[in-house]
Amino acid sequence: GASVSFNAGTPEGYHFMRFENEQGDTLGLTTPMNLIIVQDTLVVTVYAIDTIEVTLEAENGEIETDTLRYSWGSEATFTAVAAEHYHFLNWNNDVEEPTLNVNIYSDTTITAIFELDTHLVTLPEVEHGMMEGEGYFGWNTIAPIKAIADEHYHLVGWSDIEGYNTDLVRN
């Protein structure tokens, strides 16, 4: 019989598994493979789809998904869920929707970016002085507000917008 060499090219997203005949018998596990042909023979190349690993990163929140292993080219869905007092900003590919649908073609890292909630502090106009320090401040951070009394006046206390006395630190 004649010696024939078989060399399997591998399609993208797949890997070579084996050569087999039409009955499903394994003829070889490596490529290239040399085979001595003594009769009509159908040689089939068997491939398997690649499995892709996804790594998830999320600080101040989490990413919900069904699995971290995907078949090459399959669609994956990830949902960003912010921790308390944080909100979702965007994914590492700049998509700003909290649900991300992507096709997976290679090992990859998916990162959800979260940001601390901020709140606007506004200051009213006051008689006999002024206040400084309004702006946006992160949740549970100190807002440096300064009361400046007009000449011949002094600060006697603080109150919130509803008129309640508040315990604020004086420097």
Main sheet strand line-up: 8-6-12-10
Percent strand equals over 45%
| Residues in helices, as a percent range | under 10%
In total, the number of strands is 16
Q: Estimate the global geometry from the Cα principal axes.
A: rod-shaped
Please state the average pLDDT score.
Answer: 90
Radius of gyration: 33 Å
Distance between the termini: 98 Å
What string gives the helices and strands in order?
Answer: EEEEEEEEEEEEEEEE
Main β-sheet: number of strands, strand sense, barrel status? 4 strands, mixed
Structural write-up:
The chain is mainly β and 171 residues long. 0% of the residues lie in helices and 51% in strands. It contains no helices and 16 strands. The protein has strands at 2-6, 14-21, 26-28, 33-37, 43-49, 51-58, 61-64, 69-71, 75-82, 86-91, 99-103, 108-116, 118-121, 129-132, 135-138, 146-149. The strands form 6 sheets. The chain has a 4-stranded mixed sheet, with no helix packed on it. β2 and β3 (26-28) form a beta hairpin. The model has no long low-confidence stretch (mean pLDDT 90).
Protein traits:
four-stranded mixed β-sheet, three-stranded antiparallel β-sheet, 171 residues, mainly beta
Provide the fold topology.
Layout: E1 2-6, E2 14-21, E3 26-28, E4 33-37, E5 43-49, E6 51-58, E7 61-64, E8 69-71, E9 75-82, E10 86-91, E11 99-103, E12 108-116, E13 118-121, E14 129-132, E15 135-138, E16 146-149
Parallel strand pairs: 6-12
Antiparallel strand pairs: 1-4, 2-3, 2-5, 6-8, 7-9, 9-11, 10-12, 13-15, 14-16
